[in-house]
Amino acid sequence: MFAPVTRSTLKKERKLEKQGEIWELQEYRRYKTYQFYEDSSTYHGRCPEFLQTELRLREIAQREIFLEEEIERTGVAESKLEATQEEIQNLKQEYFLAEQKNNRWRADIACGSMRRGLDLWRSHPQWYLHKTLSDDCADRGGCCGRACGCCRDRKLRPERQSGAGHCTVECGCCQQFRGFALTDEAKETMKKLYPLDPKKNFSYCLKIYRASIFGLDGDSTKSPFDLIDKPPGYEQDN
Ligand SMILES: [Zn+2]
Ligand SMILES: [Zn+2]
Ligand SMILES: [Zn+2]
Predict the structure, then answer these.
(1) In angstroms, what is the span from residue 12 Cα to ligand 2's centroid?
(2) Which residues form a coiled coil (predicted)?
């Protein structure tokens, strides 16, 4: 399904961008997206799925770092080594498929205003350091609540950039801070507390959606780029 491109929508977007009114531009795009999907329970389109897959990419990337460090530093018992290496192999496959899934979504994203909003916001390589997302990380007990700086500078390989971002239940630094490993059951419980599903927690999902897709914060009319910890040299594209 494609949104009809209207001349007036594009004209208004270009005018706002030219004037450097980035909050107004992104808010307008968010509103146009909302209008396009109309029904408030579905207006995110397939966005929750996209956000859930992004979360899974981060979980995988963080789990890989944890397992590789475990093998390197602490050593893994001979009896466990094979299982650990098998898990690493399986994660590679899962990461590849998850990345493909999100590339596909970006390729056929239904609403033009949403696509343009996402492209502008994600043009900044550290979009995920947006205040809303960093605060959410701290709320969930992640590294943004401490001084270690993991989310800003996670040791990711170049092919794991889609997994950049905030702590998940798989963050090794968080585990070290907690002093114990979460069981699989506890990980599921943690994830259920913060569901990226509008049917389970509409306001939480909306908050993460607005910040992740458009760079918007519910309490601010600042340019999204000014809500990143380190403001970028955002160049206007005239
Ligand atoms: Zn940390
Ligand atoms: Zn964080
Ligand atoms: Zn962490």
Answers:
(1) 35
(2) 74-108
DSSP 190-233: HHHHS-S-TTT-HHHHHHHHIIIII---TT--S-GGGGBSS---
| pLDDT tens-digit series, residues 42-82 | 555 678 899 999 999 999 999 999 999 988 877 667 778 88
C-alpha 221/C-alpha 49 separation (Å) is 27
Nearest ligand to residue 152 Cα: 2
What is the C-alpha to C-alpha distance for residues 175 and 201, in angstroms, rounded to an integer?
A: 26
Q: Is 215 left (phi over 0), alpha (psi -120 to 50) or beta?
A: left
- What ranges make up the beta strands (E) of the chain? none
Is residue 24 pLDDT above 90, yes or no?
yes
Ligand closest to CA 147 = 1
